[in-house]
Amino acid sequence: MERGVTISPTDVLGDGGLVARRMPQFESRPQQLEMAQAVESAIAEQRHLVVEAGTGTGKSFAYLVPAILAASARRPGSEGGKSKPIIISTHTISLQEQLVDRDIPFLNAVMPVEFSAVLAKGRSNYISLRRLKGAVEKHRSLFATDEEDRQLARVAEWSGKTTDGSRADLDFQPFSVVWDEVRSEHGNCLGRNCPTYESCFYYKARRRVWNANVVIVNHALFFADLALRREGAQVLPDYDVVIFDEAHTLEQVAADHLGASVSSGQLEYLLGRLYNDRTQKGLMIRANDIAGQKLVDSTRHAGRDLFEELRDWTRRKASSNGRLRQPPPLPNEVSPLLNELAATLTRLATDQETDEEKIEYAAAADRCTGFAQTLTGWMEQRIEGSVYWLETSGKRQERIELNSSPIDVGPILAEELFNSVKTAVLTSATLAVGEDDFGFIRQRLGLTRAEELKLGSPFNFREQVTLRLPSGLPDPGESPAQFESAACDRIREYIELTRGRAFVLFTSYRMLQLCVQRLMPWLTRENYGCYVQGQELQRSAMIEKFRNDPAGVLFGTDSFWQGVDVPGEALQNVIITKLPFTVPDHPLLEARVESIRSRGGNPFFEYQVPEAVIKLKQGFGRLIRTRTDHGIVVILDPRISTKRYGKLFLNSLPDCRIQHD
C-alpha cells in the first residue's frame, strides 16, 4: 500500500472490493459491512460495542478487517512506548482454528497492509527443553512404568523436529505424569539464565505474541490472564482493544476462572511428585531426605482424612447440591503441613548443586504454598460475594473437589475489564432477548455503557425453515413423566418425516438416555444411524460420522446446542425437546437466583427466562449454516405456546414459517 493511502472496511468487503476480486463467488453483505463499520467506529472512538449478528453475516471478517486496519495503523511509540496489540478472544477451538488457519491468512493475502497475527497459548502447552533434558537423565527416578519411559523417548525425539514446541503438535497424547515433567512452568523456569533460553519454544512464542498486531486467544486464557493481573502478573501483553466472539459464553467462563478450585486428586498428584512410597520415586528420594519422606506421608494421610471428612460432613450438614453456606467446622491440618513441606523443599533447594535442581525444588515449594493458600481460603470462605461447594465423582465418590466462584461477575468485569480497556466489542449470533433487548447480557457482565447493534441474517429463513410446534403434549413442569413418554413418540414421528438427518437436543442426560432406550429398537429396525452423546465416540468424531451418514440421528445435550456446524443435506431437522431452562440446583445458579430475589427481583423472568432464550437461539441456529440449507426445527415443549413468556422465545427466533401440528 502506498504511504498515505488509507483503506476502509468497504474497500475490503464491499462490492468489487479486495475480497471480491480474490474470491469471485463472494457476495457483499450489507449486514457484514454495517458490523465492520460499527467495529471500526468503536475502536476509533474508544467505545464499547455489543453486536448480535445473525447466522451468515460473516462476523469474523466483520471484526477482523477493522481490527487489522486499526492494529496495522498503529506505530511503535505512538503512546509513549510500544503499540498495544488488539486481542481477539473466542470460546471454541473450532472458531479459533478457523481464524488462524483460514480467515487471517486469506486477509493477509488480500489486504495491502502489513500486520502480524499470532495464536497465544498457555505456558503449560509448551515443552521446556531444559526440563526435558533433565527428565531424560533422571527418568529412572521419575517414572514407574516402561510405557512412561517410552512416551518420554517419543517426546524427546519429537522435540528435535518440531518448530512449534507445543503439545498440539505432538502426534500422540502423552500421560499427564510424563508431560508434567517436561512442560514449561512459571515457577520452574530460569528465564534468561537458562542454557536453552535462545531456543526455548515458550519464549519464542511469547516474543511473537508481544510483537504481534493481533493476538488470538480463547476465553479461558483471557480470563486466566485477567485473574493473574489481580496479583500483579500476566500472560498476555497489555491491550486497550479486545474483541470477544461467542460472547454469550463470557459469564460462565469468567466465573470459572475468577473463582478457585482444589481437589483430592490434585493433592495426591502434588505429593506423589515429592515422594511415592510404592514406586520409590520423587524429589524426596532424590534428595535422600528421610524426614521429608515422612512429612509427605503425614500430609498425604491428613489430606485423605480431611477430604473424606469434608465429604461426609457435607452429606450430613450441607445442601443436597453440596453447597456450604458457612465454613465447615473441621480442623485444617493439611495447610500447615504443606507450608512445612514448602519450607523443607526451600531448604533442599539451597543444597542442590545445579541451578536446574535448585529451581525444581523451589518450584515444588511454590506449589505446596499455593495449594495451602487456596485450601485455607476455601475452608475459611474468605472471599465475600462468593459461593462455596463440594463435588464428588468416581464409582465410590472417591474424587472430591472443592470449588468457589463469584456469584456475580458483573462488578468484577466492570472494574477490571470494561473500565480498564478503551474498547471492548462483544459479538455472537445470540445476545439479544426478544427483538432487540441486550439488557440481560449487559447487566450480567457489568457492561453499563455500550453501543448496541442487532443485525439480521442475510439468509431467507422464511424460505429455508419451518418451525413446527406440535400441540397436545403434557406440560413438562406439571407432568414430567407423561411429557417424556409423549415426547418419545413425537420424536419418532419427526425423525420419520425427514428420514433421519436429525439432531435431537435435550436439557438433561437422564431424558436423553430414556428416549434412546425406548427408540433404539425402532431406530435399528428402520436402519437409522444412531449417535449418542456420552457413549464411546468423542464429540468431534460423532459429528464427523453423522455428517457422512445419509440417515443419521444424533442425540445430544448441553454441548451440542452450540458451536456445531453441519451444513448441507446431512442435517435437515433439529428437534428441541424442552425449553432450555436451567434448574437452579447447581450451587452457583442457586446463589445467583437467591441474589436476585434478595434485592426484590424476580429470578425467573430476570435470569432463567432470558438465559433460556439465548440457549434456544443457539439450538435453533444449528439448522441453517448456508444459503442453501433447509429443513425444520421442532419444539416439543408446549409451554412455548401456552405460557405468556412463550412469545418472548418466539420473538427472539429468526422470522420463519410457523406450523402448529
What do you see in this structure?
The chain is of the alpha/beta class. The protein folds into 3 domains: 9-116 and 410-455, Rossmann fold, CATH 3.40.50; 260-406, Four Helix Bundle (Hemerythrin (Met), subunit A); 461-660, P-loop containing nucleotide triphosphate hydrolases (Rossmann fold), CATH 3.40.50.300. It is 48% helix and 13% strand. The protein has 27 helices and 18 strands. Strands 3-4-2-5-10-1-11 form a 7-stranded parallel beta sheet. The chain has a 7-stranded parallel beta sheet with strand order 14-15-13-16-17-12-18, sandwiched between helices. Helix 3 runs parallel beside helix 4 (59-73), helix 4 (59-73) packs across helix 5 (93-110) and helix 6 (129-137) runs antiparallel to helix 8. The radius of gyration is 27 Å and the shape is globular.
Write a brief caption for the model.
The chain is 48% helix and 13% strand. The chain is built from 27 helices and 18 strands. Mean pLDDT is 91; it is low at 76-81.
Average pLDDT level:
91
Q: Any idea what the radius of gyration is?
A: 27 Å
Low-confidence segments, given as residue ranges, are: 76-81
- Determine the CATH topology of the largest domain: Rossmann fold
Termini separation: 59 Å
Strand content: 5-15%
Number of domains: 3
Shape: globular
Secondary-structure content class = alpha/beta
Number of distinct helices: 27
CATH structural architecture of the largest domain: 3-Layer(aba) Sandwich
- CATH uppermost class of the largest domain: Alpha Beta
Question: What level of helicity do the residues show?
Answer: 40-55%
Number of β-strand runs: 18
Q: What profile does the largest beta sheet have?
A: 7 strands, parallel
> In CATH, what is the homologous superfamily of the largest domain?
P-loop containing nucleotide triphosphate hydrolases
Strand order, main sheet: write it out.
3-4-2-5-10-1-11
